[in-house]
Structure formats: structure tokens, C-alpha cells
């Protein structure tokens, strides 16, 4: 605390003493009211009445009460008792009596030798719930389409009842824009419909204290129907007329209501004359029929009007709102402590509407009738004390009142004359390490305020300056400790009445440091590992060395040896791998270091066929609870079978049946070598436990639950967290916190003691006890810091002393006379400007400065006939610099801009409006670019003007180039005038495709481009990479044609017709057709070939042979088609596991699909034909459990060629190639004929001939060396050739007939081969080799 000229330090320090240790020092203190009931106190007639009044002082004050302004003799009424050492009254009705007899106005007085404090006047009222008067209601007859009001007229109640409408069958009445309940409880029908008479309507009143519901006799409706309902202009049902008025008090919520009739049902809109509705405080309720403004203030006064409109017309009603105010504090009087001869003052400033009257009282009596005090002078709202003297202590009351209410505040003036006294324990010992900052405290008390000095070792001058810094509150800071700072420090407090002293012994210790940290090691299983941790520390302190493994406490079993300098692990196991941390600590400081231990597991020959399978362990059994204590218990169990894998960990699950029945949570875990553990428990909880064993395979099933054990209760060990204090209104502060959860309460009837007081003031702590997680303090001054404490309490006691949190009361509106001033606007570019302003004075903010906000809107464009949006936008500036950049402006436009300052209550007054003009910029992209192909020779392009020209368009630039597959041509450019929006391009050929880049330009430059490619014709399909590869392989001299889909279609046809068997170098290609399948075991990437029959590529191992080791998901299989794929997989996870199937196409677009573990199947739809995909499966809960990526390709979607291919150049070249190939085949045939060879032919007879036997028809079998079976076939017993691999031949393209040769080797029919079941079984089928195979046989 710093000493101020007005002796604020003196006052604050003395108040601190008075409120904390006055009873210990026996210092006189006038009474202070600490707790009282609310002013308007409504009680439940079924309960006893308790009127609270608590106060403190020295001596302890006595209490008296007045009732209705007269002395209330508590002793004469047997039902009334006053709590001992308290003024709280308890009125007991257990032995009879009527609570209504005790209604009235009560006031408490707390009195001791130094003054009298009084409470506010407490208006005690008993809750009432009257009965509904009995009445017989006739059916209400109404014309269809007419308005109707069903009146409720509820019985009076205290507090007023809550009204709602229901049918007699207790179903709520459906409310909407047409039918709704008004603020007065009546039910309004804007227009009646026939369906309204299908139910009845009963008004219900719910009373708060008795929790009873009173029901009125129901209304029944009789609706007279007509042929047609005439449409009606709106008319107001409530309020009536064209205008009305409303008065509301400051801080309350304002409700304005407008309900209108009409056909169709009118809509309601709200407006405020001369301004806008306060957006942050405005709420529209009851289908827009009610306007609610929360926490109204004086600026909310004015005229509001509601507008009811339908298609027939509109009508409006004006409501004049006047905001008045009950008194509220501007400066609440604070307690004043003076020394004899000192001066001081009490201030009491309040405001309201009308202006409140200030009245001063002394010890509960008007100051005018109090004894004359020559040192006191009253001037309006201030009392000035000059040359105060002993004996003039008293309690002063300030009463601020107007017609809407009053405020009462107590503030005592205490005149003290006390010699210095020390408040801290004597001869304290403080230990600290070198090179640290330390503070020595020496709290003291005295009046007049003593002066304090520090000395070291009882000699030398006062310590202040250099390495020392002394404070007026008695503290001494040593900025950086050294060894020679060790010693005894003495603080001496002195005033005119004497002196007092205290001593603090300071010891300077060496710092604790790890001089040799552990190093990371890589060791094999079975070996030893040593982790060093050598420490230097002060020998006068006790050293503690702690080891952690993976940030958890290390359990040192028989294999581990720990000392002060190392940790040794013998017979290292794989589970010992991890990060080890050494922590060296003393009572003064600590140090830590860590290292990583990596364990290598030697590989061994797989003996899976000999080793029994490993499985998860069986659950433990026979759980037993022993040695029960208040906070712990021993749990013992018998381990289950480990199933060939040693148990590594036991997991203890706990169930807190009292608060969370049926929910099991992980309580703790222990090594697999133990079966009896001590469990630490929380108080006042009913526990059950179960044990789960874990081995390398996984966690087994949990054991059966143990018996139940209930721990005893205790006081809370912690206080609520996240304590905050902030104002929700300008005159309050809401204290909120995060309450304790159930297992932290430690006992029944959890509650919270909330304490608060203004920071740096002489006030005592105000407090209240609540059971919820918030409390509102009201009234408060505007934006004042408060010290806040929240302490937990249950039936076993209170929690620890809470920390002090600083909060702030509510903020007020900014001063309307102090807006920010815009000084300059600097144009940065076409879309941004920099604004400069003059900050507002700090004293006009009335709260915390949140930001400066710049509002800007586009007024018009510099281009004619261009519509602009004038919507307001804003940008916020939180920097302390009075300038900022406003961006996202539209170029070539007129803007308006103004500044406003913002605090927690909202925006303040706005600055004057400045105008600015943004320069021209580059335009946006054209609205569209369309490409049409009216024929095969031309393309027609047309485009739209840019949506955002950002200036005057000076022209367009069109760039284009040819695109043939992956090859692009030279870029060409065309420039157009600003009015031209079409262009015709002559195509070089009907196949070439084009890519176009179009941009608009202004004088500044070209804008963003719009890019389009010429569309495919109807007969074109985009070729895939596999198709291009196959085409280039077959036709290297026509590779340029392989970028067009039509060529590929004919390539596929060619391969099918003439190349049924590829060469050996390509025969290993994996088939990819309509359906292909890929699994995780496929490792070879090969060139795909196109065949007629789909085949599925599967793993070369059975699924039972590929069980993964330490892998949870495997055997991911993809079965694709042209636009879909089926994904399956295997896993070892739980059946409730949720999977995610993620697939990525060749454009790196990532998509995912959820799946369930029970199905292990997903159907991927909407895939692109001819595209390569990568797919994987992973667990949604643990995304580290994932399969490897699997690659598959969808097949191409072929379409028939609809154009005339006979005139195409590529077709002519293809036909020439085919003709050349046929010619070569014929030449080969003639060569074979000239050599005397003959193709083997099938003999149609049942008897088997010898190899060289002549046949009856003159033919013979040729069996010399040249007539060996061709590659890929085998000879049967009768000399025929059997096809071995390919099932494809020319027979599939022939038109029937028996294919055979005559004697001269020529064709006598179309070559066909028919297979049937009998020939296959008899080993008699034969098939001629294809011409291509004949070619290869010549090699």
C-alpha cells in the first residue's frame, strides 16, 4: 500500500486490522451488519418464519427489533425466539398460530458501546393462493373468421400465479401466430376457425410456494360457419386505440405487447421512433407479438410502435415508454478509521428518477436530533470530520429515497489511539536458494499509523535501496539472494505511543542440480540397464529422489535397484521400454532429467506350429475386501488362467453406486505379478470393484463385482474452481463458479459460502450461503473491482481457505458526449484504406475498453446503373494504436465510414460520418463462359460481363490452346472490345480439344481468369492410363492416336479378335475388366490386359494363413466395377467397434464411409470409371489401428461410337495394319503347305488309328518333327491338340459351321471350335492354334 495525502493507506490498513484480528487485539469496533433478509420477504405459510440479521463488532453487539415502526418485544411472544449471539428471529408455528398475524415491516438494530447499525426495512408477507370463484360458463358463440378473447381473470396471489391454458383433458392448447396468450393471461384468437371448437379451453393458475394449480371451468366454442370468409384489415385487440403509455423502472425488463385480429392473420413488426431497437437487449416473443427489452436504462425511453399488416392493409399503435429509476449508488459510504486529530469525510452519492433525497442518521437516529459534535459538519451528501477526537466513534446511516424505493447503507467512524503491534508470528524461519527473489513480510498495526524500518543482524542503517526494496505495508523484497544475505532481519514499527519489533531468520541454500543426467540406452532383453542420476544439493537439506516411467510413478520390483545416484534394471523385459524421469527435490527446490530406454527383442525361428495359441487371459475370481479404513481398503483376488501369455497388468475398475450406478471407471492399475493391493478411496462414496487382467494379446473379461463398501464422510478437500465475478447489469455483479462433482463433495448437503468486498476498501467481507453455482450481488457501484472468495461446505465441515479472486461489477454505458474523432483516411489501394482517430478519454468509458469499431457501407458505385448493397459492415481494432486498416472494400465505389468505441455494455456514441472513394481495380472473372459445338468444324464461345467490374471494362482477353490427352499446344491469344461477348473458333480437326482462359481488364490490368475446356462429344469417353499403355504397346507407330477413346475401343476389339494370347513377357499381366479384386497380400504391380471375362485376383494364401501378428485389421479386399466397389476385410477387434473406410482417387481427393464391425463390408458408390483408387480401413476410436493401403482400379465405361468412322484417318490406318497382318498370316500358311506340313484335324470316327495308318478317305496323320504341338497346347492320345490356357478364339466371332482344312491347307469353312462336356471328359477336344501362335512357332 502506498501512502496518499488523504491518508487512504492509513484507513485501508486500519480497516484490514479491524476486520481480521480485532477480537485478538481487543481493538474497539462499532457494529457492522453482515447479513440480513431481503427487503420484500415473502414466506411460505407452511414453514416457520426466519428473519435474518447478523452483525459483528467489538464488544459483540446486542440486537433489538422494531415492527411497523414500534419496538417489538421478542421476550413477550412465546412463538418468537432470537438465535444466541445473533439477531435472527425464528417464529415457530408448530404449536399453533397464524403466519398472517406476523405480517408487517421489520427492522433490526445492532448496538454496542461504539454505535448502532440498522438493517434495511424488511417487508414480511405471507404467500397467498386464492381459490377461483365458482361460475357457470355458457358456450361462446362466434362467427367463423371473427376475433375472440377468452378472459382468464385469475384469483389474486402473492406472488402472482403463473398462467397457462389447457383443455379439460389436460392437453396444452397449441399456440401460434393466430392463437396466443397475452401478458394478462387472456387467450386471443386473431380469427376463429372451425377446428377451434373441437376442444375446450381452461385457464390454469400455478402458485409458487404451494405448488398448486387452480383450474377454471372450461370455455366451449360454437363456431358459426359461412360459405366464404371475408378477408379483413388488421385491428388491434390489445392494446386498444392508436396510442398508449408505459412506465418501467431502470434495470427491469420492459414488455410491450400488440395483438391484432384480421384475415389472413396479420404479422407484427416493431420499431422505435428516431432510432433503432437496442439489438443486444431486444427479444421478440410470443410470435413477435411481445417486444422485450432486458435491463432497461434511461436511453431506452421514447416512443415505440407496432405495425400489424396483412395483404388487406396495415395498422399501427404507438406506445410511449418512460423509464424511471429507484435510487442506485454512485458512491456508497465506506467505513472510516481515524487517529485522534485527523480529518476525514463520509460521502453518500446516489442517483435515480426522480432525484433521490439524501438523509443522514447517526446510530439509527436522524442526525438533526443527535448530540452536537463540533468536529462534524454535514453538507448535503457529505459529512466532513475535522480534528476527530477519542469518544466520537459512531455508526452513520445514509438513506437515499424517492417514490420508487430507497437505499440504506451503514458506515462507521472509529477513532483509535493504539500503540504499534506486530501481527505476524515471531521469529519466523525462511529458507531460499541463491539467485532467487524473496519477500519478507512484517504486518503491523497502530494508530496513528506507525513508521516501519528494517535492519539486518541488529545493526546498520535502514534497509532500502540497491538489492532491497521496502514497502509501506511492512514487506521487504530482496531482489536477488546471495550467500551473504543470510542472517536475522528485524522490522521495527514506531508511532508516538511506542514501538514494536519482530524478527525473521533467512537461510540461503545451494540449489539442487542434476550434474549427471541419465542417458538414453538401447539394450537387449535379459541384460541389465543402468540409468545414472548424480545430484548436487545443499547438505543441510534432506534430498528425495523419485523415478517416473512414462510420467507415472515407477513401481520398483525385485528386478530394480534404486539409490541416490542411479537406477539399475536387471533382466530387462520388453515391457521395461519407455521414458524414465529422475526427480531430485528438497523442501526448497527441485530438478529433473529424463532418458529413453529402448529394448531389442531378438528374432527367433517361428514355432507357431508347435507353440499353443496365445489368447486373452481369463477373468480373476474370488474378490475379497479386507482391512477397511476411512479412506482405503485392501482388495485381494485369485488370478485366472493367462492362456499362454503372461499377465502384464491388472486394471481395477470401480463403481460409485451412490452417484453413478452401473458406470464403471478405471480406478487404478497394477503389475501382473501382484494380486493384493491397497486402494485409496474418496469419502462418503459407496464402492464396488472388479478386476481385469491384461496380457500381450489384449484385455480379458472383467471379474465378477466385489461386495459393496461405504466410506465415511469428511469435509470438502477442495473449493470450487473457475470462480469469476462480472456484472450482468450496471449495478450488479454475478459471482459464478464450477461446482464440485459428486465424488468431490465428501458428504451430504453440499453448499457454498460466497464472500465478497470491494478491493482496497475498508469494508468487511459480505457473505451468503447458496446451494447453486452462482450468486448475484446487487446493488453495486459501476465497474468496481471486488475481492471474491467461494468456500465449499457440507455437513462434516468447511473446505480449505479459498483463494481471493478479483472480479468486477457491471459496466455502464459510455459517455454520450465523448465520441471518437476521425482525423484522417488514407487510401492504400483499391480495396483497403487506413483510418486514423482520436481516442476517447479514459474517464468516459465507464468500464473496460473492448475495442474501437469502424462501421462502413457502400453508398454507390462510380459506374452508372449498377446496383449496390448498402448493408453495414464493421471491423474491430483492439490495438492501443489509434489507427487501423479497413479492407474488403469494393473498388471504384463511394463509401461512408464512422467510428464508435465499445465497452462491455455495448457501443458508445458514434463519430461524424466521413466519405471516401476507392480507386479503380482489376475486374472479377466473367460471369460465365459457355462453349458450344454446332458441328465438327467450329466452336462458338459466349460469355457474360463480370459480376464485379471494379471499374470501367476496357476489353477482354481470350487465350486458348489445344489439349490432346497429356499434351498441350501453343498458347494463342485474342483481344476483344468491351461490348463483344461471343467468338467463333474454326477447329483444325474434329478430334482436337481445346482449353480456354478468359479474363476481363480495366485500365489497372487484367482480372481473374475463368477457365473452361471444350466438352467431349457424345461418342467420346475419356481414356484411362491403362488403356493408353495397352494401345501404345500394340501400336507404337500410331501412339499419337492413343489419346482418343475411339481408337482404344477398336484397340480392345483388335486384342480380343486377334491376340487371344500375349507374348510371354506380357502374359503375366493381371486382368482388369468389369470386376477386379485386390487384397493386401498382392505385392506385384503388372500391366492390365483387357479380356472378355472378368476374373478376381485373390491372395495366394488362405485367410487362415495370414493371421496378423500385432495387427488388428488385415486382408482388405476390393472388388470394383466401373462406378462402384465392394470392400471387405478381417479384424480382431470387438463386435461393437466402428470402422472408417477411407479411399483416395488419383486426384488425391479423400473420402470416407463409416462401417460396423459386425458386417466388415462396405459398398462404395459413385466412383469414377477408369480411375485408380487407394483404400484403407481403420478404427474410428483408435485411428492408429489401421490396415495398409490397397490399390484398385475401376473399369472403363465404354460407349458405342456413333460417328461415321469410315472417313476417319485413324480408322483407315488401323485397317491397313490389320490387312498387313492378315497378309503375313497367309504367307505363313503357304510356307507350311510348301514344306509338306498339314494341320492336325479331328477325325470323326470311333476307332483309334495308329500314328501313320492310312485312312479310308485318303487323309493321313503327319507326325514328323515339324508337326509338334504349338506353344500353349498339348497333344491327346488321338493326335489332337488341346488348348491349355486361353479359352478365347475366333470361334466366338464366327457365324457357325465346322472349321477345318482341306488337303491343300486352305479353309473349307469358317474356323470354329465348339467345346462340349462329352469331348472334355473323353479327352477328345481339339482346337487349332491361332494365326498369332503360328507366327510365334516359327521363331
UniProtKB/TrEMBL annotation:
Family: Belongs to the immunoglobulin superfamily. L1/neurofascin/NgCAM family.
Keyword annotations of the record: Cell adhesion, Cell membrane, Disulfide bond, Glycoprotein, Immunoglobulin domain, Membrane, Repeat, Signal, Transmembrane, Transmembrane helix
Span of the signal peptide: 1-28
Spans traversing the lipid bilayer: 1210-1231
Basic and acidic residues bias (residue ranges): 613-626, 1242-1258
Species, as recorded: Latimeria chalumnae (Coelacanth)
GO biological process: axon guidance; dendrite self-avoidance; homophilic cell adhesion via plasma membrane adhesion molecules
PROSITE patterns named among the record's database cross-references: FN3 (PS50853), IG_LIKE (PS50835)
GO CC, any one term: plasma membrane
Bias kind Polar residues: ranges: 701-725, 1270-1283
Region ranges (Disordered): 606-626, 699-727, 1242-1339
InterPro entries: FN3_dom, FN3_sf, Ig-like_dom, Ig-like_dom_sf, Ig-like_fold, Ig_I-set, Ig_sub, Ig_sub2
Domain Fibronectin type-III: 619-714, 719-812, 819-921, 925-1027
Subcellular location: Cell membrane
SMART domains named in the record: FN3, IG, IGc2
Domain Ig-like: 31-127, 133-220, 234-322, 327-414, 420-507, 512-598
Record-linked PANTHER family: BASIGIN RELATED, NEUROFASCIN
Domain of life: Eukaryota
UniProt name for this protein: Neurofascin
Topology within the bilayer: Single-pass type I membrane protein
GO molecular function: cell-cell adhesion mediator activity
